[in-house]
Amino acid sequence: MSDYKYSAHLLKELIIRIPLVLKTLLLHGIQMSPGAGKQDLRTEITTAMIRSFMTFSAPVDKTQKNSMRDPGVKGPMWVSKVTLSRPEFDVRDAVVRAIEDLKTTGNETFALPPVADVEAEWTGFRSGVGKRTPQPDLSEEEKYQELRKESTSDMTILYFHGGAYFLMDPCTHRVPVAHLSRLTGAPILSVRYRLAPQNPFPAALVDALTAYLSLIHPPPGSLHKPVPANKIIIAGDSAGGNLSLVLLQTLLTLKRASRPVRFHGQDVDIELPGGVALISPWCDLTHSMPSIVNNLKFDYLDMKGTPSEDPEEPTAISSAPFPPGSVWPVDPPRLNMFTDANMMLHPLVSPMAAKPELWEGAPPVLISTGEELLTDESFVVARRMHRAGVNVVVDQFEGMPHCHAMIMMSTATGKQFFKNVAGFCLDAAAGRVKSTGQVNWYGQGLKTSREIPLAEVVDLDEDRVDARMSKSASWLVRDEEALRKEWRAQAKL
């Protein structure tokens, strides 16, 4: 689709949503809207509009293509595209070892991915230019050198974008990432990891580990110099938050094994980063927690589940909603684009499944969430980390949808969010983060704030959390087995 046709299509889609905007205005004005009392008008309209676009009416390959449209580089940012060269198979094998070490049932199955080059882009703040000023026509190396000139920190942020593992691209996150670079003074390496369903688990994790090791031990031809591990902050939003967590768990697992990894001709020891910053992280792929239903009115996400009449029972989530296309469904069929159903309880797929002891020794972690579908799972992970002695900092913004600050940067809550994330990154790199065991709760519009003990924010103990996850996972395994049985029967016809 040409840029002109794409713009015309987008304009048409906005016009047909005018009645939705008017309805939201009316309901908000008479205090009968879903988010009444917790969301201001801008948040309600933004949430309603985004939700209306999430129809999944096009095949996933077409949706992927649209999500990867590069708008170009304009405004106060430098962007230098790089390729992190493919390492030895040892990196993949190290990920496989971690998977094997953390198996919970022994019946888990996954596809063994090839090792590949990893595409990424360095992003940094560019001073003295307007919002529409194009980036100069320079080589990627020259852009990187200009970016480094404006970097004031010895810290580097390794960023993983969101998109449920099958959508989006670093270019869609350039504006908020460049803003974070401005606030921290740090260069940011945004990774274009391989997407599902073409590249299911653990392809993205192999790419993430490759990118992390490439920062510490630059491959030949790299633009950057070695970055000490304790000066690296891993960060990500949504599925990128999931990838950040499972990369951390992989590093912890490999470090416990005390086995070096062969990387571009040398044996390297596993070192831990200075910290991990998570934005609305996806921690439970079984979608078993109550907030999946309870916070639906505040969020644009919708897992299309069937709520149980029993509050102790999790919600039954339907399969991936995309119509057939060139990349989905796959053979043999899966319910989930990212992984086999029998992997759902693995800590490197659903970080919420990791017991507290698996987080022991982790560096400081920040988790920032709204009042969204994924809130409860963030709180459970934070609680388990805190019990393991991890310095974990948790922020919650009342009534805010998924990744709210990434789409509403100029609001009061957006500004507070970025201030908190930037401050955490700087503190983590300096070794001065201290956990209080509290959730920093911010009321609507920052009018109020208070601290809530982590032990009180989720009304489920550890056993009940595990039971809900297990029940949801068993449903998914059952449904996937039925799907594959039908597929095998059709194949024999």
TrEMBL record:
<protein>
    <recommendedName>
        <fullName>Alpha/beta hydrolase fold-3 domain-containing protein</fullName>
    </recommendedName>
</protein>
<dbReference type="InterPro" id="IPR013094">
    <property type="entry name" value="AB_hydrolase_3"/>
</dbReference>
<dbReference type="Pfam" id="PF07859">
    <property type="entry name" value="Abhydrolase_3"/>
</dbReference>
<dbReference type="GO" id="GO:0072330">
    <property type="term" value="P:monocarboxylic acid biosynthetic process"/>
</dbReference>
<dbReference type="InterPro" id="IPR029058">
    <property type="entry name" value="AB_hydrolase_fold"/>
</dbReference>
<feature type="domain" description="Alpha/beta hydrolase fold-3">
    <location>
        <begin position="157"/>
        <end position="404"/>
    </location>
</feature>
<dbReference type="InterPro" id="IPR050300">
    <property type="entry name" value="GDXG_lipolytic_enzyme"/>
</dbReference>
<dbReference type="GO" id="GO:0017000">
    <property type="term" value="P:antibiotic biosynthetic process"/>
</dbReference>
<dbReference type="GO" id="GO:0016787">
    <property type="term" value="F:hydrolase activity"/>
</dbReference>
<keyword id="KW-0378">Hydrolase</keyword>
